[in-house]
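Structure ticket #2291
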Amino acid sequence: MFTIIMRSSIALLSIIVAIGAPAVAQVKESETSLSEIVVTAQRREQTVLDIPSALSVVSGEKIRDLQLFTSHDLELAVPGLTFHEVSGSSQVTLRGVGTGYAGPALGNSVAIYTDDSYISNQIGAVEVFYDMERVEVLKGPQPTLYGRNATGGTLQFITNKPNLEATAGYVEAGYAELDTTSIEGMINLPLGDTVAVRVAGKYWDRGEGHVTNINTGDKITGEKEYTRIRAQALFQPTDQFKAILKVEYGESSGDEPLRRQNAVGQLCQLCVGGDDGAALGWYQTDQTPQAIVDQGVIDSWGRNPLAGDSHGRYREVDTLALNLEYAINDTWTITSATQKREVMQNGGQDQDASLAPAQSAFGAKNTTVPGEPDGIVYESFTQELRITSDSDGRLDVTAGVFFSDDDNAFTFGVGGDNWNALQAVAPNFDDVESFAVYVEGYYDLTDDLTLTIGGRYTDDEVTHAVIGGRLAGGALPDVTQTENFDAFTPRVALNYRGDWGSAYASFSKGFKAGGFNSPSFGLQPRIEPEQVDAFEIGAKFTPQDNVQIDVALFNYDWKDLQIAVIDTGSLGISQENAAAAEVTGMEFGFQWAASEMVSLGAAYTYLNGQYLNYDNASGFIPAWEAPGAVGDERGLVRSSLNFTGTRTAQTPENSFAADLTVNFDVSSNWSGKFVTLVSYSDEYDMIPGAGGPARLTVQDSFTIVNLALDIENESGLSMRLYVDNATDAEYLFESQTTNFGGYQGVGYPRIFGVSLRKTW
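Resolution: structure written out below.
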């Protein structure tokens, strides 16, 4: 019934748009113009035209209009950006530069910041969007102002802050297919002339999975529950000083993501009788039910070694942050950003993607090191202090000091029929201390031409330890190893401003620290730092007040790439260095406020990424072709392959996104807004070489269409009808090649929903 109602609503929407289109065409050209976009990409408030690099800005309003629920959905709105998830980690690639899975001490190649503070780990790095001001996607290496682990760029998530102006708020409740309910709200309260508080929260619950386990008939994958609450307090006693204290709590739980086998025939190690990828529909799996995996581990170990007592994933994220800003005078401002963040996660997954309970990995209970946490616990402290100038002269400066201290504990366990007898568990401890100093100067050579020169020195100390590990009934040797990594990373840029817009050219050098593979069961080889030398030229045209056109050309020389490899045969996920790669590309963006009723945005990215030297790549070959095979082996075997000349992973050649907004009057008191998002991506390899000659790990080309219709009353009461993935496109959020064959995690099908909102 719900589907019928929603489809009828979409039909009504089509009629409204058809009737409204002629009216739109008849609207007289107005004084419509694009709103000036102010960003903090260079750690100071500037317009987009003042920034000598490419960036995409997604406003809070656009996030809601386009139905972007989490940070992973940003890939639909920003071509050249991909977000994927493996084992609860949030992996981001921008313009082809990314890492894949990174252990506790090896973060993303694209730095993530929330409200001016760095998020160092992939675990817990998924941003659930609510009460957002904007997201800034800074493209290309950000070597000076962001520095650490920003070889591909930086994502800045910026939330709405308390304000002293007026009491305001909203509440929104919704329901969608797959038994999805949600409620979200915010209230801003001024408490006198100098203090204001803002509290926002979101609860989202999907009670039904979208994938059928053909062995049980159960719907699995997708059952998730999110709770987020954020409280901020503003203290602004004078125009020169303000302080914002933020406390945020996040909790999520749900079933373990699907491991859908996509290998066929003999490539599937545990499949028999044709029961393999060829026999499964897109939204089907035959993997071991979670309860059986859990019980098998418990029965074999004689106790429950699983942290959280289940493979179902549970995560908590606690954040405490304090941002201070003091204007010394009309020229100089000091800013301090302090953050304490803790992430706790437990759970696990079936790693063989088959009915046989052969292998699973999980966050384990740490019984061998008393007082240490179970599962995964990441504790991070960051402190940044900087000073900026805004003078009437030709020179301005940003300079700062950055420090971070990460204490990471990951107790790793392996179970299943292949491993239960060994009762393998390894408490891993990874600590990272990072210190950096930076300075960036902006000198006006003329009234229209600005030279930017900056540099950053970074010094990282990385320590990896395995203490209290157990294997085959005996104690593993305790090991500790430490390495230091340091680098100087410069940036040089020219920016020319004219009546028509701006043009720029830049060179930057990105650096991502090295480290060790973790979790592991012992000593690990040193992973070398990766570096990117980037050249970029671009222009931002404003031929009219209501039109902006952006063009960028870029070339990356990428050395010592850190690449993730999953090897279920030797316990886990590891990183290795590829010697060199090159990425060249072009971007085009277009924004047009055609009238007060109609606006259009479009963006296109072309990428050509290639491994120039990767002749020692880890991939997988058919087991029967491995040395020593007798001809009837099943599955795959990890082997050293040559991926030189192949496309870099997560690098679609062509990607495109466009959104159309149509505003219309319904009556004297009611107005409407119709929003369409169309997002397209070419096929791309999800891991290097698609995992090997079988090419099991490929994202096929896909197109996603999101539609939304809002009807709003002058009183602030509104109703939204929406459909996500209107074309029912088939796409992936995860894919890997392993010894057992290949597995995929499939994205959501078409989903209809409705919500009611009251704003005041």
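Closing remark: The longest helix spans residues 2-26.
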